[in-house]
Backbone:
């Protein structure tokens, strides 16, 4: 840096230089002589430039220091209080950042109801199978039609103890497993007659046991024909077709033969078809019983769900 000269004055002819001051330069004149106005002006200009440089440079350094501190504080954020010692490689990647905000899920009042029961549940469980067990429910109307074959109803009967509706061998099986009620009906068509019987038990296990026990006995454990009135006397001399099956808590049986009382023989006879048709009809009526009760239960559940929904609105 160039030295500033204020001219020469006494003190052994040695050239003297003023001292640097942090503030503005002094405006006093040196003793003895006229001041060098040009030099003073030049020195004043240099001083102003130096002051501006100091102010500008100091501000830049301060800004740099503040920025550095803020950066270190941001990098230093982390667990354990040692964030300032962590390298950039230790910072979480963008894949580790949550993809969504964590606002709490809205809560709603619980309005769920039990699932709708299936039809088989109603015909298997006495606590659900509450529909009336009547002749009208199984043998409604004056006819029975199966696959286009029509039979006329001739008689119907309800047996509360199940004993009068079965052979002695079948009676022991039915009563031994708790048979509650037996419904019978007789139908005729084209020289044949068929009696259908549906027995109700306390539960599915009892009905299944009765069906299996009757199967072990064989042909001696059979349903008795319902005769009298408009129903002809048939199967009094043997030669009849019988079936036995079970679904849910019900055992259903048939016995069919010639309506004139003659024994039936052969493979695909009308009596054999009548026995099968009676079996199909009984099965269909039991299944419909389950479906009707399941449908009513479903409607009740829907109404209850709608009622709860309305009460929460």
Residues:
């Amino acid at each position: 840096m160039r030295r500033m000269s204020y001219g020469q004055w006494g003190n052994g002819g040695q050239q003297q230089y003023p001292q640097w001051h942090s503030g503005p330069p002094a405006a006093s004149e040196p003793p003895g002589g006229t001041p060098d106005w040009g030099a003073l002006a030049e020195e004043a200009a240099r001083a102003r430039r130096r002051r501006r440089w100091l102010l500008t440079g100091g501000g830049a350094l301060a800004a740099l220091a503040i920025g550095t501190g803020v950066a270190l504080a941001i990098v230093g954020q982390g667990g354990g209080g040692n964030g300032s010692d962590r390298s950039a490689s230790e910072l979480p990647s963008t894949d580790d950042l949550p993809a969504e905000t964590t606002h709490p899920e809205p809560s709603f009042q619980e309005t769920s109801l039990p699932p709708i029961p299936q039809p088989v549940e109603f015909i298997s469980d006495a606590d659900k199978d509450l529909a009336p067990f009547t002749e009208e429910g199984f043998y409604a109307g004056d006819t029975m039609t199966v696959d286009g074959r029509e039979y006329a109803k001739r008689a119907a009967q309800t047996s509360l103890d199940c004993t009068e509706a079965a052979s002695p061998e079948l009676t022991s099986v039915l009563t031994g497993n708790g048979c509650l009620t037996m419904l019978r009906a007789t139908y005729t068509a084209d020289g044949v007659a068929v009696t259908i019987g549906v027995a109700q038990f306390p539960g599915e296990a009892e009905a299944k046991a009765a069906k299996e026990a009757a199967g072990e006995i064989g042909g001696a454990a059979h349903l008795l024909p319902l005769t009298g009135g408009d129903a002809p006397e048939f199967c009094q001399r043997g030669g009849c077709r019988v079936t036995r099956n079970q679904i849910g808590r019900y055992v259903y049986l048939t016995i069919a033969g010639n309506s004139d009382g003659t024994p039936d023989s052969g493979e695909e006879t009308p009596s054999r078809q009548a026995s099968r048709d009676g079996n199909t009809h009984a099965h269909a009526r039991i299944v419909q019983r389950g479906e009707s009760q399941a449908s009513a239960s479903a409607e009740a559940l829907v109404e209850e769900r709608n009622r709860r929904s309305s009460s929460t609105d």
Notes: The beta strands are 143-146, 149-159, 181-189, 192-200, 241-247, 250-258. The CA atoms of residues 194 and 274 lie 6 Å apart.
